[in-house]
UniProtKB/TrEMBL annotation:
<dbReference type="Pfam" id="PF21686">
    <property type="entry name" value="LigD_Prim-Pol"/>
</dbReference>
<protein>
    <recommendedName>
        <fullName>DNA ligase D polymerase domain-containing protein</fullName>
    </recommendedName>
</protein>
<dbReference type="InterPro" id="IPR014145">
    <property type="entry name" value="LigD_pol_dom"/>
</dbReference>
<feature type="domain" description="DNA ligase D polymerase">
    <location>
        <begin position="30"/>
        <end position="139"/>
    </location>
</feature>
<dbReference type="InterPro" id="IPR052171">
    <property type="entry name" value="NHEJ_LigD"/>
</dbReference>
Amino acid sequence: MTVQVGSRRVPLTHPDKVLFDGARDGGIDKAGLADYYRLVADRMLPHLREHPLALQRFPDGVGGSGFFAKKVPDSAPDWVHTVRVDRVTGGSVTMLCADDVATLVYLAGLAAVALHPWPSRASAPRRPVKLIFDLDPPGRTTSRPYGGPPWPCTSCWTSWTCRAIR
């Protein structure tokens, strides 16, 4: 199936594929994720635009195994903004940037439920323009509600002035 987003025709395969299982409401499928991305695009795009993305994809839903993808799929529409970036280990990879609503809907079709923007722009991939804190280190879990970092440096944390995404 295809979805019309502005002037773009966006492929959305298996729109009823459940990505987030919900006991009461049946969960959220790819079409629902696409609707959500459209709904929050005005708030989301300023943080993604012009930044190469690493995608966390879950083709069998978040209860199944997922994977990280940096390379743009060969089947990507030609209107998706792509950028070739050099790897530190040699070679290069072509990544995508989510610059518009149509690209967000395309990402929903890929079951990309977590979008990880680079801290740098595509035009200058080795010059970060923002600092990103990843507060979910691998192998560590906590049952307490989020109230700061999971380490004992809370005095440092609370003295910072942080601007939240609103």
